[in-house]
Amino acid sequence: MNNSKTLYKERLWATPWLYVITLLLVPAVALMLMPLNRTLGLVLAPLVYAIVAVLLTVSAPRVTVTEKEFTAGYANIPVTYLGNITVLNRDERQVAIGPGADARAFMLLRSWIPTSLKIENTDPTDPAPYWLISTRKPEELRSVLTSAAANAAKTR
Predict the structure, then answer these.
(1) Which pLDDT tens digit goes with each residue over 56-110?
(2) 62-155: which CATH number, 2.60.120, 2.40.50, 2.30.29, 2.100.10?
(3) Distances from the Cα of 67 to the Cαs of 74, 77, 115, 130, 139, in angstroms?
């Protein structure tokens, strides 16, 4: 584990509307199971929703920046390999993941988060030319990444 100071932390939680929409699982599961067994349908329907809600919560990826490393989900990169960082709005992100996409890019995107960052990867041994990362605070994350990369370059 990296022992350097944490400069930024964000959890890419699901939007509350996603939890509301998944409530539709309750009547769907109940309607499927009630012809077989009424009690089973009434018990399993809310249980299925609870399991899905827990999975949505537990599986929310983390975005973290320390003095030495940038972590997005399960991927990480030393901050010394970060190049140009661009803030993308919803429309720019659509172009970046559609017609402007590179299949080798690392992407950690959540559709319910409209803003993201495009971060150039300057590591010559890494096949990913850039990272696309969803974030609710793009300006703050860009600022932290830029300063962490600059500080890491000074101490090299």
Answers:
(1) 999 999 999 999 999 999 999 999 999 999 999 999 999 999 988 999 999 999 9
(2) 2.30.29
(3) 18, 12, 24, 20, 18
